Amino acid sequence: MEQSPGSGQGPQDSGLPGCYRHPDRETGIRCTRCERPICPECMISASVGFQCPGCVREGSGTGHAPSANQPRTIAGGTVAADPRLLTKILIGINAAVFIAVLATDDRLVRDLSLIGQFWDYFGAPLQGVAEGQWYRLVTSMFLHQEIWHLGFNMLGLWWLGGPLEAALGRARYLSLYLISGLAGSALTYLIAAPNQPSLGASGAVFGLMGATAVLMRRLNYDLRPVLVLLALNLLFTFTWSGIAWEAHVGGLVAGTAIAYAMVHAPRDRRALVQYGVCGLVLLAVVVVVVVRTSQLV
């Protein structure tokens, strides 16, 4: 179901050059010093535009940029040695939880899935977010019951998450992922509650999809691949039975809004704008959960 935004299209297809360090990655951005084409992983924020790793090393004279001019991503994050580390960790957590689900005969699904309110045989509220189990909004994001569900979500996380982690930096990328997932959980709780269970990383993955579109637009990439990917996933969302469309839509809206702030924030107030928008989206999530809980209890 999920596929790479850049699959099936190389630099020759769109007319854009390939990154000089990663020739298979087309890009519309060039180093402001040497003018060689560079992809998001190679972009290092400079006083004007972006520079490539080679020019930064040459400019420092030692092979390492001075602390005052620490290499930065397009969003202002620190350039990491392993740009996919958090993505690998997130995939590992999802896989570990899935193994635990199999080992406990689905008992974890009952204990950790997102459910607004569940009644006992006498009609009394028994468990759920409305009963104070807010942790379900988070735990359900890492919970999968079927191998195909886990596989599709983890493929999407790997293909979309790696480039975003490299372009945004770890802290911003993790904020994007978690808040997108929470927004998906909150919208599901608002609409599908009280007693319809929901689980999976799809909300967070849809947030990454929206963020990918924003990033590609910011870098003047060809948007057609990611728009086709998004359209196909939305088609599956609304035509397949048993899919929590609320999580997909909530994650997509939140991820798009956060990513726009990440890559368009003014340089002099970048962190304030970026984390301010993250805080506003998180506040909206809390308000939705509180309001829905007040309706159920």
From TrEMBL:
Keyword terms: Hydrolase, Membrane, Protease, Transmembrane, Transmembrane helix
Principal subcellular localisation of the protein: membrane
GO molecular function: serine-type endopeptidase activity
Domain Peptidase S54 rhomboid: 132-263
Compartments, record wording: Membrane
Lineage top rank: taxon: Bacteria
InterPro entries named in the record: Peptidase_S54_rhomboid_dom, Rhomboid-like_sf, Rhomboid_protease_S54
Transmembrane segments: 85-104, 142-161, 173-192, 198-216, 223-241, 247-265, 272-291
Keyword match Membrane: yes
Assigned GO CC terms: membrane
GO-annotated biological processes: proteolysis
Membrane topology value: Multi-pass membrane protein
Family statement drawn from the similarity comment of this UniProt entry: Belongs to the peptidase S54 family.
Protein name, UniProt field: Rhomboid family intramembrane serine protease
UniProt organism field: Streptomyces triticagri
